[in-house]
Records
---
Amino acid sequence: MNALLPRPSILSIEPYVGGESKIPGVNRIIKLSSNEGAFGPPPMAQEAIIASAREAHRYPDGGATKIREAIGAKFGLDPARIVCGNGSDELIAYLILAYGGEGTELIMPAHGFVMYDLTGRYAGCRVIKVPEKNLLADVDAMLAAVGPRTKLVCLVNPNNPTGALLPQSEVKRLRAGLRDDILLILDSAYAEYVTDPDYDPGQALVDASGNTVMTRTFSKIFGLGGLRLGWAYMPPQVADVLARIRGPFNVNATAMAAGIAALAEPGWIERSVAHNTEWRAKTVAGLQAAGIKVWPSACNFILADFEDVAKAKAADAALRARGIIVRGVGGYSLPTCLRITIGTAEECQMVIEGLTEFMKNV
Ligand SMILES: *Cc1c(COP(=O)(O)O)cnc(C)c1O
């Protein structure tokens, strides 16, 4: 009998494991494992979701015209160069499948976002993970890893799961050092949270080059992860490629309606950023006071480092006993760390209390 088998590279992929959401026997769960935004969906987006129910029999606008116009107006971008996806994960997959494939290489930092590794292998690329310096992407090492088969370089900035922000000058130096036939994917899923005045999520680099794409998402600050809505800003020739390969109705009507409403919610980004900046600092200070190392973060999560694998596991268990789910990042080869989303003020306080108590007892 001949066994049915996929392409060999497929079987090297470990299925993606998302942040957990349940603890057996615990009723009230504090879920701080997927960076979903502290405030939930904006009220106007919730209204739009309900209103969209009446039109659920209609196919969505395959051109995603209104949502692209709303994104363009909000961020000052040409809607013709915006493509929407069923989450930015879908756009990332399209880009890697379109430009990568068997016989090509994809370069990413060692602790970069896992989807680039998984999708790179799916496409058949050889995925090269370049060691960082102090958990910060090492541009010289990434450039040194480039070979004749390199087609894709993927940089998440600020990065998940480390929270690290690479200075703008380094991002520019990376693009400038890459050949023109290499696509640079700048994943700016956490862009809205960044308060560094020098930061550019990628718009300037996309405009300045024909081979850079910026990806963004409604899953983090806009609290719409459950609806799957992402977008990317890109040169016209890349938009043309995605227009050829994407599903004709890849973004659903409810997601688009909610996205438009979320962008229109007055003060949403400002309030979310102010809360995040305040409670990230308080959580960092609380954990440090308890004796825990915390890596610098520009995102809506922090990476707490217990500097010992068993201790990190015990801290995870101690939080779970209090109904708090954070994210173990052993799968990112950071087994001494836990990634903790910045939730509401109350949730952050519960994390600080739980870990302070834990550190007293270890
Ligand atoms: C959360 C996240 C995404 C977003 O994904 P969606 O598919 O839009 O939900 C993309 N990149 C990074 C680095 C993320 O952390």
Note: The chain has a mean pLDDT of 96.
---
Amino acid sequence: MVPLLDLRAQYRQLQNEVDAAVHRVLESSEFIGGRESECLERELAGYLGVTDVVTVNSGTDALVLSLKALGVGSGDEVIVPSFTFFATAAAVSLAGATPKFADCAPDSYNVDISALQKAKGQHTKAVIVVHLFGEPVDLSPIQKWCTEHGLWLIEDAAQAIGARYADQSVGSVGDIGAFSFYPTKNLGAFGDGGAIACRDPAIARCLRQLRNHGRAGRYEHQVIGCNSRLDEIQAAILRAKLPFLDTWNERRRRLAARYQRGLQGTVCRWQTANVQATPVYHQFVIRHPQRDALQAFLTTHGIATAVFYSIPCHLQPALAESHGEVSLQHAERLSEEVLALPIYPELTEEAVDHVTGLVHLFEQQR
Ligand SMILES: *Cc1c(COP(=O)(O)O)cnc(C)c1O
């Protein structure tokens, strides 16, 4: 049996550090807004190379509050990729704005400049790019284009913490970077969590108010905010895990390279990396013309797989109103062909070889 992900294996490896972190918080009995989240914000800012990090309750809130802090809301349009996790698009609606969907490139699975140009309208105020599956978007041309057109650039780096683009951390290049610490992400909490990286202290101040009931003083509320604070237990656990992140990501890259070698000679294709980028393989996602049959075959042989994403956002019922009649051919095609294979730092080389061997066997039998 090969699972898609094994969180218990990671806990076993770090049990002493994690248990000590949790106990530290229990003893302090400071559960919200204390030393752990302050330290985590500083450590993450150092790690990412930004002036400010604001921790929040989830990656979704990181996106919603980012849009609000940038003044994007009712009447505004925000370009988002259609081929992404639903939260990217939903965040735009939750902020009161309208998502406009861009198609993706068939090789990188990410948006490129031509897709953004097509999606841009009169009311476009911002672009959210997604570093999908940990593969950095080609940011330079997009950043230049956003600057030329006066658009905010938000990086949804929920799947890409630790990935680099042209020697910068993803999430530190655009105006704002949003991260998620959902347990399955490359840096996962033991519950929900998220963070926002920014380079403008005024925006950081606004974000700190927004996540805490719009508070300016103890009982003075400047704006209508929400309750989106990262709790101290999650912050302490994330601090214990952060020093291991680069090693885990390096391991993911080695496993991905092994998949790529092992899949040579099959009809599988996989996400291509930008030359300026160091990806972190949150998922290793192949394309296969007989995706459903391959998935069934692997399931029979005890290999867990998943389809990210079977419905592109522009075809989601919840967003039907905002997208109208768009058709995005690459996103639609990808949703029929993609299959995520198991990848996580504790996965063995033997397991990867076993999976790639089964893919060859599947193709021989057809
Ligand atoms: C996980 C994820 C989010 C949302 O993060 P949560 O912490 O689950 O709210 C947003 N965008 C992408 C691309 C994600 O993968």
Note: The CA atoms of residues 64 and 91 lie 5 Å apart.
